[in-house]
Amino acid sequence: MDIYLVNGGPCDIFSPKHPLRNALYHNNRDGTFTDVTEQAGVPGGGFGQGVAVGDYNGDGFPDLYVTQYGRSILYRNNGDGTFTDVTERAGVAVPGWASSAAWFDYDNDGRLDLFVCRFVDFDKSKHRPCNPTGEPEYCTPKLYTSMASWLFHNNGDGTFTDVSRQTGVAEYLGKAWSVVAADVSNDGYTDLFVANDTVENFLLVNREGRRFEDIGLEAGVAFSVEGKARSGMGVDSADFDQDGWMDLFVANIDQEMYSLYRNNHDGTFEDHGPTTGIAAATSLMSGWGLKFFDYDNDGHLDLFLANGHPDDLAEKLRLNVTYREPLLLFHGTGTGFKNVSKESGPVFAQMLSARGLAIGDFDNDGAVDVLVAVNDDAPLLLRNDVGAQNNWLGLRLVGKKANPDAIGALVTWQAGDLKQTRMIVGGGSYLSAHDPRLVLGLGKRTRIDSLEIKWPKPSGLVQRFTELPTNLYVTIVEGAPKWE
What we know:
Layout: E1 3-5, E2 23-27, E3 33-35, H1 37-40, E4 47-54, E5 63-70, E6 73-77, E7 83-85, H2 87-90, E8 96-104, E9 113-118, E10 147-148, E11 150-154, E12 160-162, E13 173-174, E14 176-182, E15 191-196, E16 202-207, E17 211-214, H3 216-219, E18 235-238, E19 247-250, E20 259-263, E21 269-271, H4 273-276, H5 278-281, E22 287-293, E23 302-307, H6 314-317, E24 328-332, E25 337-339, E26 354-360, E27 369-374, E28 380-382, E29 391-398, E30 410-415, E31 418-423, E32 426-427, E33 438-443, E34 450-454, E35 462-465, E36 473-477
Parallel strand pairs: 29-36
Antiparallel strand pairs: 1-2, 2-3, 4-5, 5-6, 5-8, 6-7, 8-9, 9-11, 10-13, 11-12, 14-15, 14-32, 15-16, 16-17, 18-19, 19-20, 20-21, 22-23, 23-24, 24-25, 26-27, 27-28, 29-33, 30-31, 30-34, 34-35
């Protein structure tokens, strides 16, 4: 896995003292990376926000969609170590303040479509001072107008059509920071959970690839249990309790607590943040990047949280709140979560202004590592020294009739008394993209008895495998009789 880092840059409200650009680091396969940004042609070109990675043209090479304040960029991977800016031809520049984005196949035609979160209606002419003393301060988004996010349909010829209006997405005005694409209703169509800042969150249920309907209010995920809009920032989706239904997670600002929403199988969710201890642990924190994954390969999903208050004056204005905050790690026990941050390494004692978080196994040892973006500081690459102590199998799924990245695929494996299911989701975290490979943890079990892959529509193919290897990565191409 290589690394792409998004940076700020010149715009109408920011003139950097020194030239700034994004950075693409090529993995040298020896624990080091080389900066190849210039030769690859992906420096960015504005005030960057985040990145979404997906093979939108199905040529086998991952493409980059860089979200920005002002104008976003689509970089097509040429397959030779270089990229081409195809934004204008593709029609996905999205003027405005774009934040997170996610590739997914909303209409099940086998091509990756693109959802782009839009934050508030803002430019320099609309700036409103929020501190009466005139001192620069982080202003609440309540001062600014909500906006509609974008949905682009992949036409299959290198271009996209803005279908925000015809699919109903444009009806929902928000202040979106992040999105995760997952099938929460188990109907074979990928839904969207969107975190909004100071207005209600959206749960956009996909109605058979034709329209999206926001059921966040009736589902119980739009507001807090007190009925208040919160500062939704990072999101993810996973079946944390292994009941066959995708659950949701959202991180908020201090005093609001984070929510772990358990899917009730009937279109509603229940917040298990208080009962798992996650809410209490985060009551004075502000969360951004986050991800469910099995860091120790014991077969159970864990949760990693990146935190930091948005306002660098927080300590002057709030009691018991700090600007820089620690990372948090919750270990999944199979029946709940345990906060294991203090015993998981000295990095968890550091105070950070963390923002984006991406997971990826950069050294291919089966232990999924974590990359954390830190506001106004160097990023952290956290090597996982725990996961390789257990057995595992890494999967790279390649769709043929299904979308190339197999977003929406359902993977079930059995290893002795352990049976687990994972869905491949689109997006998740905050402004970040992740290693597309799936690592299946086995604990001390030495073999996988069976593996089943249910490919997303329009395929729907179900493939079963036995006698799989362990402790290495394999590629499974849709319809192929054996792994590679």
